[in-house]
Design goal:
By secondary structure, this protein is an alpha/beta fold. The protein has a single domain, classed as Phosphatidylinositol (PI) phosphodiesterase (TIM Barrel, Alpha-Beta Barrel). The chain is 26% helix and 23% strand. The protein has eight helices and twelve strands. Strands 1, 2, 3, 4, 5, 6, 7 and 12 form an eight-stranded mixed sheet that branches. β10 and β11 form a beta hairpin. α4 runs parallel beside α5 and α5 packs across α6. It starts with 6 loop residues before the first helix and ends with a strand. 40% of the residues are buried.
Length: 257
């Protein structure tokens, strides 16, 4: 079944679980993804790095220390070793035995559950290889239509689009650029996410730029912000962010008009 990220095509507002339902479950794990869907999310955001043997895994940090019982860089260990680590007990003992998922596992789950996927490339040393591995997996599993590759490194995104013109990309920015459309055209991305630098702002910022028929020369919407910490309603330039139990539990909600 085809998937659309646009509410006008999907017939619903999409809700995204950041690293799965990461407030209630260990982030970037299969329990977190399942919980996101159970609480109403229709898309998930996950992070990808590479193992020593070049396998894409779902992990936010370059190191394993924060989210598993392992130590050191993920890039220094092979997949078998990383799969032997516990990625759940440190969060809560009831998640003991939870593994670091492979990207293939997460994509297979999302396809079966009819979920959209945002894959952030966190791989620092071999980002182009990470993109190639992700693209190859999406092509092999027929999940390109339900996946958007996102990242802060716009050069990597630009090279990704040049090598894999069929994939969707989203640029993440910290600054409010005077020419957001120009930023997107430069890296070839089809959408934008604006992220605050300082967590102390207690503001969750979302953004999008939607093209007519995928043509970057015909932008429909660009640049949006929502203050979910105050549980308020905020409308800006075509995206609606509504206060809801989902938002108060770590989800993102938006709809293009």
């Amino acid at each position: 079944m085809s998937f659309s990220f646009l509410a006008r095509d999907a017939g619903r507002v999409h809700v995204r679980g950041h690293r799965g339902y990461s407030l209630a479950c260990p982030e970037n794990t299969m329990p977190a993804l399942a919980a996101a869907k159970a609480w109403g999310a229709t898309t998930i955001e996950i992070d990808v790095v590479l193992t020593a043997d070049g396998e894409p895994i779902v992990l936010h940090d370059r190191t394993l220390d924060r989210t598993t019982n392992g130590h050191g860089f993920a890039a220094d260990l092979n997949l078998e070793r990383i799969r032997s680590l516990d990625a759940g007990a440190g969060f809560n003992p009831r998640f003991a035995g939870t593994h670091v998922p492979t990207l293939a596992e997460a994509v297979d789950w999302a396809k079966h559950e009819e979920m959209g996927i945002f894959v952030e490339i966190k791989e620092a040393e071999r980002p182009d290889l990470a993109v190639d591995q992700v693209a190859a997996l999406l092509e092999a599993t027929g999940t390109i239509d339900r996946t958007i590759i996102i990242g802060f490194d716009h050069v990597v995104l630009k090279r990704a689009v040049e090598r894999h013109p069929g994939i969707g990309t989203q640029a993440i920015i910290h600054a409010r650029h005077p020419d957001i459309v120009g930023v997107l055209r430069a890296c070839g991305a089809g959408s934008l996410l604006e992220s605050p630098r300082e967590e102390k702002s207690k503001m969750t910022t979302f953004g999008a730029a939607v093209w007519e028929g995928g043509d970057p020369s015909r932008p429909v919407r660009a640049g949006h912000r929502a203050r979910t910490a105050q549980r308020g309603r905020h409308h800006r330039e075509g995206l609606k962010f509504a206060d809801s139990p989902l938002e108060r539990n770590g989800f993102e909600r938006s709809v293009p008009r």
